[in-house]
């Protein structure tokens, strides 16, 4: 991990020196492959990696070489900035081109960039300062470095270089003034502290994993003991099940008789609903044709609309009663299952189970009484449905009377025959609350519940 962090920092500095953008995502993929195989790279492998172009795509060899030299100067030689500028002499006052090299506490200037002929040094300390100068003597981009013993006037090649040099020298002086190390050395120390912290966290994680593994082994032993105890209890329960088998058979026979009776009642109700639905479909088809031909009969059809709403209410009431009946049946099945579970308890709890069974039998009787009450409510709903049907017939007669009156005045008497059957249920105020397909789906649902209860 430590070596990969150093490689990441080196590649980042190289890409920045080459003027490329951030390649963090690309290096993350490479670091994953590196960590899975080994902990680092040799010097030759690092050279091959840089030369492969993986992190220098689109760069020529000269650019890569310049970037490597820049990184080497910064990290190894502590060179913060370097380049050609013009320097004004102290004696002759002439301007001469020199190669300047900025380090953390000194600026050296040479005849050329090969660093063979050194011409002098500018010693930097906290008392030095750098200031920009106006153009003079035909020279532009001037600035001056003031030290305790002397000052140095320098001319950069352009305004950008001038500002970069002023900023770099001022930053170096400020660091000397407060006694701080250069930025790259401070970053190196921070990376070292970060690596130590990551190693400590990794050791702590390994220690926690060992503790969890030990606790897991202990828990497995406890679970094995509990499993053996459960197997012994299951063997005892199997013996008790043989003694309670006769009682269970009697309860099942009784429950089967109750289910058969409920099945017959529900089948009769479904047949009645299907018959009424067929009649209602024919009537709605006739009403729809009357609406298209006699739109002036809206006031008379309002009574028919109200009657249809009452019919929908009754149908919803029937559906609700059927759902409540199904819920009660499910409750009966739940009581039956609870009785079966009660029967499977051990002999030591037999007396307590007998008392609970008596209580649940009383609850079962109460549920049966509630089911009978639902039967009465369903009969009342059928009576209401008959009343609504009579209202529909009255509304149909009123509609026919209005039709005869209009035909008498307009001479347009024409026999209205029932239209073809439509698979959709349409009312005079729009589509019904459900279609014929939905009604068939509900009938299938009822039959499915009936089969499940059986």
Task: Outline the fold blueprint.
Elements: H1 2-17, H2 24-37, H3 43-51, H4 61-75, E1 81-88, E2 95-103, E3 106-110, E4 118-123, E5 129-133, E6 142-146, E7 151-155, H5 159-178, H6 183-293, H7 298-343, H8 350-410, E8 426-427, E9 430-431, H9 436-453
Antiparallel strand pairs: 1-2, 1-7, 2-3, 3-4, 5-6, 6-7, 8-9
Helix pairs in contact: 1-4, 6-7, 7-8
Characterize the structure shown.
- Among the domains are: 1-77, no CATH class; 80-180, PH-domain like (Roll), CATH 2.30.29.
- The chain is 68% helix and 10% strand.
- The chain is built from 9 helices and 9 strands.
- It has helices spanning 2-17, 24-37, 43-51, 61-75, 159-178, 183-293, 298-343, 350-410, 436-453, and strands at 81-88, 95-103, 106-110, 118-123, 129-133, 142-146, 151-155, 426-427, 430-431.
- The strands form 2 sheets. It has a 7-stranded antiparallel sheet with strand order 4-3-2-1-7-6-5, with helices on one face. The chain has a two-stranded antiparallel sheet with strand order 8-9.
- It starts with a helix and ends with a helix.
Keywords:
PH_SWAP70, PH-like_dom_sf, about 450 residues, alpha+beta, cell membrane, PH-domain like, nucleus, single chain, elongated, two-stranded antiparallel ribbon, 7-stranded antiparallel beta sheet, about 10% strand
